[in-house]
Fold each of these.
Amino acid sequence: MPRSINKRPLITYTNPKSPISESYRMLRTNLQFSSIDQELKTLMVTSSAPGEGKSTTVANLAVTCAQAGQTVLVMDADLRKPTMHHIFSLSNRWGMSSLLSGQCEMRDAMHATNIENLMVIPSGPIPPNPAEMLLSKKMAALLDELKESFDLIIIDTPPVIAVTDAQIMATRCDGCMLVVQAGKTKRELIARAKASLEQVNARILGVVLNNVDRKKNGYYNYYYYYYSSEEKR
């Protein structure tokens, strides 16, 4: 049964007409344009360091895509510090780690939300071997199975510099996106994060600049702004 979204309200769900929600829709549109020549079925979202807003970006982007009529699945592949079950107020008893370890069936791990077309697979219990789980053949098979049922799968991962998890998932996704907090994330960290993804030949679609001071920087109507990787070259 669908559960209420109440612990961390999603702005795109609670206030879809707000400027912030419009910025998420712009991000959705830019992603659609980025995938004209190559299908985008699996999108990984990461950051260089904790606290930059990657999980919030995942959740709100998923909502806007579902609102546009796509069937969307959010997967919490942050098997170290998961947050999706908090954002969507879901049980985390069963989830991705449970599926990969054979402890539950898909029907136990996948949750409906109050948002039409949007499903969530939380992380499940934190395992002792997150990287090995993500690298397993079961993970590859799971993604292949789920791609048959959804238009878009958005995957939340740990920060790319901290552990290898994001690099592993980047090799299994059609594209990845880096979330950067304005005024906080140092350039050298961003460069290291980008280099880490390029090292595994990840398809970097662009960067989400988060927490921009709209008045100071002239972004009067934007909270998130998307820079395509082509524009940055």
Amino acid sequence: TKGVAATRPNWGGRGIWFLWGSAGMVLIGEVFYQAVVLMERSFASMLPNGSIAAFYYASTILSVPLFLVVVPLTTILFPRLVELFKQDSRSALGCLAKNSVLIISLGVGMAATITLFARPLVELLFMRGQFTMAHAEVTAGILTVTIWALPFVSMGRLLRISCYSLQEYRGPIIAVGIQALVFLSLGTILVPRYGSVGLAVALVCGEAVMMGVMGVVLSYRIRKTAP
């Protein structure tokens, strides 16, 4: 019996309601994230024919380095950060800083490389069937902007799992909510003036703001919990 009790998760005496309360907050954050995706599609529908498809193709290329490199790396780091934050905040911050440099460097390097080869990359991957040269030009133009969201998305994911390591779930919700507001505001201003490029800029700015807010929230939480 003692062995079974020792393996039970520690929810601070708050029982199952703590688990579902935390899950509910994560779910709210996902709702905000999906709202940003829907707003992107809505703004793209205001643009010339094929714009929604062009953003979809560009986001597909963006997702390749994200899911092949960043997601596995941050997933492996999560249990380590949980352990370090429980033991020593300074060690956890050192691990976070070291891996932040790595993730940002990888993100910037991959973004720069894809920007240089955006046009031939789009042609190589999608130039067949009804996908014409005009579609390739539009998609490549969008990709050269949206790919610069990669460092912000990558770092934002690392900061998010750091918040989760500290059982901080409200911070990511606030960050994604502010991202949605920034994206909506910039999209309303930039899309009518600059078209697909304006929408791409709004997306990148939204990701940058979310990363910044997440960093502020994490810093505040660490200072609050530090001995």
Amino acid sequence: MDESAVREEYQQLAQKTGQCSNHDSSTLVYNKSKNRYVDVLPVEDTRVKLEEIPDIPGSDYINANIVSIGDTGAFICSQAPLPATFEDFWRMVWEQVCLEFIIMY
């Protein structure tokens, strides 16, 4: 694939931003700081939900989605953790029993 084809495909993808399902959890005040990038948000329908910690708003939130790959299984796409979200990241790994297939973006 040549460079112009890659640029064209990127432009087509960039135009689709925001056309996915909602991103409600990622825009809540107590979750905004957990997103590495303001324009890369998890899709609500498939986001990884952490076990909620009582009395801590947003404790179930991490910027990550479960992506199914047909009948062969699934993997998790996640942003690289920020210093403030290291604990959440490793909690996700533990709770989701992730032995492999975490893709960071």
